Amino acid sequence: MKDLRAGTRWSRRLLEAGLLALLLAVLWTFDTLSKLHTAEVIGIDLDHFRLVTNQVTSAVAVFLLVPAVAWWLTRFPIRRDGLWSAAAGLIIGSMLFAAAHYFLLTGLRYLVYSLGGRVFVFSDLWVSNLLIEYQKDVKIYLAIVAIISVYRYYRRHEADQVSARPDRLIVQTGGGEKIIRKDDIEYLEAARNYVVVGTGAKEYLLRDTLSNLEKSLAPDAIARTHRSYLVNIDRIDEICTTDAGSHEIMMQSGKRIPLSRGYREHFKSRIVS
Description:
Helix content is 59%, strand content 18%. By secondary structure, it is an alpha+beta fold. Strands 5-4-3-7-6 form a 5-stranded antiparallel beta sheet. It has a 3-stranded antiparallel beta sheet with strand order 8-9-10. Strands 1-2 form a two-stranded antiparallel ribbon. Helix 1 crosses helix 2, helix 2 packs across helix 4 (126-164) and helix 3 (83-115) crosses helix 4.
């Protein structure tokens, strides 16, 4: 199950990274073509190697910094109840982003120029250049913040919508998503930010919480046996006592679910009600 969770997370992250890389490539390509066209109209003879290298290294530097921006937004999220914290995070984050972008693209240009048999000269006026770059980088930073914030809002909204559906759940698989009827659920297991949905034959992932699912699923069909488990009452085969004296539930598939002492009496009352 750990492999499934890890595989699902990595497949989603690779897809997100690929879409972001494609977006950056398109934007920087249009910007490069625009600069080439402007130079041609004005009649300026551009060094194509320098122009393309500068554009590519800038885009790569931005791409490499996106995870840091995403992490920063988890520390300073944009929320109505924390506007001052969010504003401070945006200002400080934009400064850190601009500085990191400037020095990272400079290092990349040193590398590319040396591979191309050229010498890259680092300007002595790097403080002035940094201030000039900040005027451009702050726009890029705010655009990244907006994209990440909208995406996270969409993910939360999607999870809420899935949780509210009365008859089915949409769960994650290794290659996509699958619709599962709630009657086919055997048990639910908390797994950090996800819930493992067991159907007997297979296990799937759902980005939700046990508390939300406990409220949305039919209360007469689902019972909590442990702080990390919910079971389908109709799929229970036997309540067992282990050699250590603890209790567990044997499901029809053979899956063993712990029955903790704190939930035992409430669980038994649910069974006979």
